[in-house]
Amino acid sequence: MTSMDQIHRIRDLYYGQDKSLAEIASIENLDWRTVRKYVDKEDFNEVPPSPKDELHSSKLDPFKPLIDKWLTADKKAPRKQRHTAKRVHRRLKDEAEGYDCSYRLTATYVAEKKKELRLKQKEAYLPLEHHPGEAQADFGYADFYENGKLHHEAKYLVLSFPYSNGGYLQLNYGENMECLLEGLVTMFEYIGSVPTEIWFDNTRTIVTDIIKGGGREVTERFRRFCEHYRFKPVFMNPESGWEKGNVENKVGYLRRNELVPVPQFESLPTKNRELLVACDRDMNREHYDDDNNRFISELFQDDKAALLPLPAVPFDTSLYITARTDKYGKFTLDAGKHRYSASPAFCEETVRLHITSAEVTVMDSNLHEVVRHRRLYGDEHESMDWIPYLRYISRKPRSLKNSGIYDMMPDSMKMYMDGCESGNRGRALKVLAELTERSGFESALTTVNKAIEHQVNDPDSLISLYRRTFMDVPPLPPIESSEKIPNMKVIMFPSDLTALDAVLAKGGAARG
Fold first, then answer.
1. 134-309 belongs to which homologous superfamily?
2. CB neighbourhood size of 150 (10 A)
3. Each residue's pLDDT tens digit, 362-390
4. What is the domain class of 319-385 according to CATH?
5. DSSP labels for 397-444?
6. Helix intervals (H) in 289-356
7. Which of 109, 153, 356, 479 is least surrounded by CB atoms within 10 angstroms?
């Protein structure tokens, strides 16, 4: 099987060194048809998972967050007082309940994690002369409000072009691989082409190791991204931010000019499209260091003339992984920092995840969506979607207190469910699931609190209280008494109704 390194060499020999297919086949000791295949290849997306793929989990998965915590803490410890694989294995046996993994399994993971955490400092030479078509990328941080929610010290990605001093930015919730790739793809597509090379920091999002001679080991996913768009990634020397001073300056410039005052908007994608247009407008000014006093927009045309064409096939920037749920049907991401609910139907099972910068979608083994969450960042700890849980237990209401779902409920909801008659409990849970789906769990909980306040516990009252609270249905006012209402005249009928029958017959009532 041809490796990504060899594919990169083949494409570099063809596109960068103008070698023929036959010459490359001879150099790489490959069939010329294989060389042609990778020269013409336009799609470097990974093959998406199929429903028939087996889910692979490891017995070590529940203990990985603890191992990560120990090895991360080692970065501050003396070199001779850091964990070895044997020490990790021994501590897990002594301290971690249920640990029964082999030493080899643990040692393999420890070696991989140490490689990820290891930081080396090597010297390398990078030219500082910039040519049209070259770019630099970096993240800055800024606050913004989306739908009234403050994202404190969120990130924004800047792509600058040192030759022209043009640049673009995209707001993000964080600084992970999905944010990086989505931001770059959006800017590539807006420009209509791709830089010939992009300079990056040695962020662990991309770089897994700095090797002797200044080389870099990068993630497989990022390598695929680079090959797909055919640009060359260039990495700075550690602690040498001055080497990409253009983007460092552009990060500050765009914050001061495009993100002041603190942005407030309803939709991040819409705001990001507006920012791209604003960056185009900003190029209509003179370059700070051009002898001919040309505008940045004019110089940027030279940049665009040197750029690479967009590939015919778009790159899928999503992340596809699996996760193991706990007994409550929940799982964690980001080394245990963020917790998400799946469903009580998937307790202690492996689920598939489709992750973007904004969402985490849980899927079953057939790739059917189970639940979708807003992706968590920073100090946000848990995202709980109650709908699958309420629907699940509504079918088995008698098992509520033994299911674990009862323990997760807020105290007021527990009080309400305790007061429900057993025959109404299942329907009440269905109503709460419907209200949650309609306008969120908080609205359902508010309705429960009002039901407790009014001392009602039947499902119909829940629906009525919800409508009154959230659907602007005002209660009917009492009828006011008025002196204008006439008194009714009481007619007394005799016990003998013969005379009345005669009157009715005379008026034709008897004839219909």
1. Ribonuclease H-like superfamily/Ribonuclease H (3.30.420.10)
2. 11
3. 998 888 999 999 999 988 999 999 888 88
4. mainly beta
5. GGGGGGSSHHHHS-HHHHHHHHHS-HHHHHHHHHHHHHHHHHH-HHHH
6. 296-306
7. 479
